[in-house]
Design brief:
By secondary structure, the chain is of the alpha+beta class. It has two domains: 154 residues, Ribosomal Protein S5, domain 2; 119 residues, 2-Layer Sandwich (Alpha-Beta Plaits). The protein is built from nine helices and 13 strands. The strands form three sheets. Strands 2, 3, 4, 8 and 9 form a five-stranded antiparallel β-sheet that branches. A four-stranded mixed β-sheet has the order 1-5-7-6, with helices on one face. The protein has a four-stranded antiparallel β-sheet with strand order 11-12-10-13, covered by helices on one side. Strand 3 and strand 4 form a beta hairpin. The model has no long low-confidence stretch (mean pLDDT 94).
Amino acid sequence: MVFFPPAKINIGLHILRKRDDGYHDLELSFLEVPFLHDVLEISQTETDEFLCEGIPVAGKDEDNLVCKAMQALSGAKGKERPACRLHLLKNIPIGSGLGGGSSDAAYALKAVNLFGHLGMTDNELAAVAARLGSDCAFFLQGQACIGHGRGELLEPWPPCHRKRFHLVIAVPDVSISTADAYRTCQPADGRPALPTLLKEDISLWKKLIENDFEKSLFPRFPILRQIKDKFYDAGAVYASLSGSGSAIFGLFEEAPDHRALKKLPEKCFIREGNIAIP
């Protein structure tokens, strides 16, 4: 069985306040990026195995979210699952804010549940996913969502635009850990709700919708601001940091001239394709 865990982007990310448990209350949107994905294969084996190829992933295998997902379903619903091999091909850049690790974990839960005939419902899998990571539960929804809490409390994105755009993603040679990004973030409450802002005409998003991590990360990593400015110079209707970085994306009415993309900083990972805005 083969699965294709997709990347995601966030159009708007509000950091509202720090909580007593050390996390932050957020308000953010999630959109899957179908043309950028990892590949996860599950197969039968005598003992659990995990293999990872493609973009190198630092750390021990047992600390990978795919392994943690596999172990989280051991004994689920009182059933012994069969041993399995999970083989991951990494294409989504690490530390980019594109949700690759969370997506891999969510799809590992799907894979093990189906492969092992565990019979877990979507809601049961989502509860496990939320314990693995704040973004994980989104990748089990199959639709665009608005996130609250740590990002694990989800509601469907109300359809209001139904329009397709050309999406360009650029990731410079910068990796930003989520923990590091939160250490320097600047919470701000009392703004119009993100779902309300998303209903505005997309031509107004540039002035209305922001990713709060830009306030602290752009001064530290000027290359991120440079990429965002290049997207607007190339005609983007909206451009933003995704998640806690370091990916910058631009939404275009039509595919931009490739000469404009050549003006992006060197060593950028660049992917482009079409995406639907609900």
